[in-house]
């Protein structure tokens, strides 16, 4: 359990997220993920990094239980910093990052996927930002890299989801495959990149980031400021408490 890294084949490093049951990462998990991606991309022999996850879904965002257990704002601040570091590690990775998305990709998962270079998804994958239903904001910066502006706004305000097939239609998801074929599909793309000259690939990553129209780091930090305001005002605590009550009621009904 945790963040694991291994060399799959020459030039390809694989970083795996494994936080059962739903890959909702605690603060330490986000920092560990950032470290693993940076270290993988920094290794001279690496030409591409594959980011994947074990379990039911790719990522369910931050660990809400960690927030609720903290009477102050320490957990929130660490989660904010941890997410920022992980998202930045993907974007700033010295080599391309291929993300393999299985099942659900929510909240912080959108930050990771939106900042990656190539997205491959299983045919049961769904993508969404339920932040407004949790009393928080964030990762609209990254969702805007996946869908057109007005659809991003609609998804954000409604906390709605899109399928991998819909994102494939928009061109943000490169390939959609059955879940059993997901790792192989991600590796196929990764090996294609790894067969290129590493010096050219690293230069290309810098060049593409350099011509990006949006400063993803500044934009995301701006969003996080409003999340902090909602928490300081007590709005987030109130909404999270209602969310916990709803979950408890659903469990009783079952």
TrEMBL record:
EC number(s) reported in the record: 4.2.1.150
**What keywords is this UniProt entry annotated with?**
Lipid metabolism, Lyase
A Pfam family the protein falls into: ECH_1
A biological-process GO annotation: fatty acid beta-oxidation
Cleavable signal peptide = none
* GO terms assigned for molecular function: 3-hydroxyacyl-CoA dehydratase activity
The record ties this protein, via CDD domains, to:
crotonase-like (cd06558)
> Family, per the entry?
Belongs to the enoyl-CoA hydratase/isomerase family.
Q: What is this protein called?
A: Short-chain-enoyl-CoA hydratase
Tell me the organism. Answer: Nocardia macrotermitis
């Amino acid at each position: 359990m945790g963040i694991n890294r291994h060399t799959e084949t020459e030039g390809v490093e694989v970083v795996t997220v494994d936080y059962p049951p739903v890959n909702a990462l605690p603060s330490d998990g986000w920092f560990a993920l950032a470290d693993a991606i940076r270290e993988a991309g920094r290794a001279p022999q690496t030409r591409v990094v594959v980011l994947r996850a074990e379990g039911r879904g790719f990522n369910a965002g931050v660990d809400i239980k960690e927030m609720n257990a903290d009477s102050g704002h320490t957990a929130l601040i660490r989660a904010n910093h941890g997410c920022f570091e992980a998202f930045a590690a993907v974007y700033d990775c010295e080599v391309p990052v291929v993300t393999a998305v299985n099942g659900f990709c929510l909240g912080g998962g959108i930050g990771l996927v939106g900042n990656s270079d190539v997205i491959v998804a299983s045919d049961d994958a769904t993508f969404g930002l339920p932040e407004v239903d949790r009393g928080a904001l964030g990762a609209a910066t990254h969702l805007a890299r996946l869908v057109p502006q007005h659809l991003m706004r609609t998804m954000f305000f409604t906390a709605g989801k899109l399928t991998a097939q819909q994102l494939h239609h928009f061109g943000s998801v490169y390939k959609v495959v059955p879940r059993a074929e997901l790792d192989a599909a991600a590796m196929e793309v990764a090996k294609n990149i790894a067969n290129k000259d590493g010096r050219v690939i690293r230069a290309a990553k810098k060049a593409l980031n350099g011509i990006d129209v949006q400063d993803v780091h500044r934009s995301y930090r701006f969003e996080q400021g409003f999340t902090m305001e909602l928490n300081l005002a007590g709005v987030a605590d109130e909404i999270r408490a209602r969310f916990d009550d709803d979950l408890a009621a659903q469990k009783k009904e079952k």
